[in-house]
Design a protein that fits this description.
By secondary structure, the chain is α/β, with parallel strands linked by helices. 36% of the residues lie in helices and 24% in strands. Helix 1 (27-34) packs parallel to helix 2. The longest helix has 27 residues, at 133-159. GO terms for molecular function: metal ion binding; UDP-2,3-diacylglucosamine hydrolase activity.
C-alpha cells in the first residue's frame, strides 16, 4: 500500500530564479518540493521562465511538469502571485492581469502577523541591468556555462563519494567586487523598505539565499532573499507560528531519500505540444477557459 504524503501547511511560500528553459534549472527537485507543501499563497518572485535564453530546442518534460503543476495549484484555489524579473521582463507589460487565482504584478505587499512584507524581484537595484543590459545578458550566458560545468564536477564528486560544491559561490566569495555588490544590494533594499514603513523586504535576483536583520537610518528591517533553483535550491516559507524561515532543499532529510519513479503521463507529450494547444490546456486547468 502506497504511503500517503503529508504536506506541510504554509501561509506563504516564495520561490524565485527557477530559470525554466535553461540547462541549470533543477525542475525535478523543485517539483518534488512543491508537492511536499500546501501553501495558502505562493509567490513566484521573478525569473521563473528564462525568456532571455529560451529556446524551442530545449524545453524538457520536467520543466513542463512544473508549469502544469503550478497551473493545477491555481485551479485548486491556491493564490499565486507571479512577480516579474529581468529574465522574464517580457511579462511586465501584463502587470495587473488576473487569470483565475494567478496574478501577474511587478511587486506585492503582504500584511502578515509578523509585519508588512514588501516583495519584488530586485533587478531594479542592479546597476548592470539599468545601464549595460548587453553586459548583463553576456554575464547570464557565462553563468549558465559555469552551472553546466558545476553539474559535471558534482557528478564526478558523487561518484567518488565526496560532497558537492557550488562553483559560482566560490567565485562570488573570492571576488571582492561581487561581495560588495551583494552587500550594497541588500542594504539598498532594506533602506528603501524602511523608508516606506515595511518590516520585511523579500527579493530574489542575486541567487544568494538569506534571512537577516539590517540596520537603516529609519530602524531595523528584516531582509529576505529566496535564493534560486539553479544552484542553492532554496525558498522562503512563512507561518504565523514561526514567521519567515529559509528552506534549503539539500538540508531536508526527506528530500534526500530516493523518490518513487513517476509513470509517463500527459505531461510528457505536453512538452512537445504546439503553443496554442499548450496555452489552451493550461487555461483549462486554471479554470479560466
Amino acid at each position: 500500500m502506497k504511503k500517503k504524503t503529508v504536506r506541510r501547511r504554509l501561509e506563504v511560500c516564495v520561490i524565485s530564479d527557477v530559470h525554466l528553459g535553461t540547462y541549470g534549472c533543477h525542475a525535478p527537485e523543485l517539483l518534488r518540493y512543491l508537492k511536499s507543501i500546501r501553501p495558502r499563497v505562493l509567490v513566484l518572485n521573478g525569473d521563473i521562465v528564462d525568456i532571455w535564453q529560451f529556446s524551442k530546442n530545449y524545453w524538457p518534460a520536467a520543466h513542463m511538469r512544473v508549469v502544469r503543476y503550478l497551473a493545477g495549484l491555481a485551479a485548486k484555489g491556491t493564490t499565486i502571485h507571479y512577480l516579474t524579473g529581468n529574465h522574464d521582463e517580457l511579462l511586465r507589460q501584463f502587470a495587473g492581469t488576473r487569470l483565475g487565482a494567478l496574478r501577474i504584478d511587478n511587486k506585492l505587499v503582504l500584511d502578515l502577523p509578523h509585519g508588512r512584507t514588501w516583495l519584488f524581484h530586485g533587478d531594479v537595484f542592479d546597476v548592470t541591468m539599468r545601464h549595460s543590459r548587453w553586459l548583463a545578458r553576456l554575464g547570464s550566458h557565462g553563468y549558465d556555462l559555469l552551472i553546466l560545468l558545476n553539474r559535471l564536477v558534482n557528478w564526478g564528486l558523487r561518484r567518488l563519494g565526496r560532497p558537492r560544491v557550488a562553483l559560482s559561490k566560490v567565485v562570488k566569495d573570492r571576488v571582492k567586487s561581487a561581495v560588495s555588490l551583494v552587500s550594497d544590494f541588500e542594504q539598498t533594499a532594506a533602506t528603501i523598505a524602511a523608508d516606506r514603513g515595511y518590516r520585511y523586504v523579500a527579493c530574489g535576483h542575486i541567487h544568494c539565499p538569506e534571512i537577516k536583520t539590517l540596520t537603516t537610518p529609519q530602524g531595523e528591517v528584516g531582509y529576505l532573499n529566496s535564493g534560486d533553483w539553479v544552484e542553492n535550491l532554496t525558498a522562503l516559507e512563512y507561518t504565523a507560528a514561526a514567521g519567515w524561515e529559509l528552506y534549503r532543499y539539500h538540508h531536508d532529510a526527506c528530500m534526500q531519500e530516493p523518490s518513487a519513479p513517476e509513470a509517463p503521463g500527459a505531461e510528457e507529450g505536453a512538452a512537445d505540444a504546439r503553443p496554442a494547444e499548450l496555452l489552451a490546456g493550461l487555461l483549462r486547468e486554471m479554470g479560466v477557459a
